[in-house]
Design brief:
Layout lengths: L5 H12 L11 E5 H19 L5 H21 L7 E3 H23 L3
Antiparallel strand pairs: 1-2
Protein name: Topoisomerase II
GO molecular function, one term: isomerase activity
Keywords: Isomerase
């Protein structure tokens, strides 16, 4: 649906090119780990898709949830070195933009089911 697409592979490349954002833990940090930030953002975006598309069949919703889990899993692998560390404001900003791009891929995939 999403994780096997060229668009998603391009996003993984984009993440790889921007790993320097995660190379330093300098800057303001909160109490949330990178893992917490990622899981909260992905969950919020999936819930937004469900709210925007109340007519989605349960099988499509299930596929979306599985794909969202795959996205979190991929991010945890790429960001393993900082996954449990407190997220800096710069990292949170990058993740917010990155996950918004992932949501766009999900939105496009959902549109095909209409």
């Amino acid at each position: 649906m999403v994780v096997e697409t060229d668009g998603y592979l391009a996003l993984i490349e984009h993440l790889a090119f921007n790993l320097d954002v995660f190379a330093s833990d300098e800057g303001d940090t909160g109490t949330e780990s990178v893992e917490d930030v990622v899981t909260d953002m992905v969950a919020s975006n999936i819930m937004a898709i469900f709210e925007q598309n109340p007519e989605l069949h349960s099988s499509v919703r299930f596929k979306l949830l599985k794909e969202a889990d795959s996205v979190v899993e991929d991010l945890s692998e790429v960001l393993a070195g900082v996954w449990a560390k407190p997220a800096t404001n710069g990292q949170i900003s990058f993740l917010d933009e990155y996950i918004a791009l992932v949501k766009n891929l999900f939105d496009s995939a959902v549109a095909k089911y209409d």
